[in-house]
């Protein structure tokens, strides 16, 4: 894939300070502080999480740009009460340009800790992230999770 041979300038840009290893989320959604009560745009509904826990899925949230493309934002919480904590942010990038997604992730989180065909992974002291590029034709998916979500991280690595 084209992005696997990313230019050295991209890595240098990430190392110049803008790409912090300490980010805790994206936009208004931050692990450790965002709760279900903070969701004011979109719809939320109870959901069974992949590991069997009861949780909440929020969709139709305020989209934002990843590179030049709009991403849909889905949020997952560890329960159904207003104090339930954010445990996953999923970005679905429409009309995905793989290089742009990886560049945006690198600028936000630093260089990937691992790259494989059609995917790259990031990790810092707060979160783990995966960019599935493309997850399906014309659409890339980015998963961001706190490090405490070990089972879900393992499941996403197998996708």
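^ structure tokens above, recovered residues below v
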């Amino acid at each position: 894939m084209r992005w696997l041979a990313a230019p050295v300038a991209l890595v240098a840009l990430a190392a110049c300070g803008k790409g912090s290893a300490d980010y805790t989320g994206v936009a208004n959604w931050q692990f450790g502080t965002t709760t279900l009560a903070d969701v004011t745009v979109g719809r939320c509904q109870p959901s069974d999480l992949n590991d069997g826990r009861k949780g909440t899925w929020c969709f139709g949230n305020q989209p934002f740009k990843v590179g030049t493309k709009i991403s849909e934002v889905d949020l997952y919480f560890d329960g159904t009460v207003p104090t339930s904590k954010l445990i996953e942010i999923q970005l679905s990038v429409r009309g995905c340009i793989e290089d742009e997604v990886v560049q945006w992730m690198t600028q936000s989180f630093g260089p990937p800790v691992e790259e494989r065909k059609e995917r790259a992974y990031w990790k810092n002291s707060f979160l783990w992230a995966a960019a599935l590029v493309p997850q399906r034709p014309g659409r890339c998916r980015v998963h961001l999770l706190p490090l405490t979500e070990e089972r879900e991280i393992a499941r996403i690595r197998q996708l």
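Residues 1-20 have pLDDT under 50 and may be disordered.
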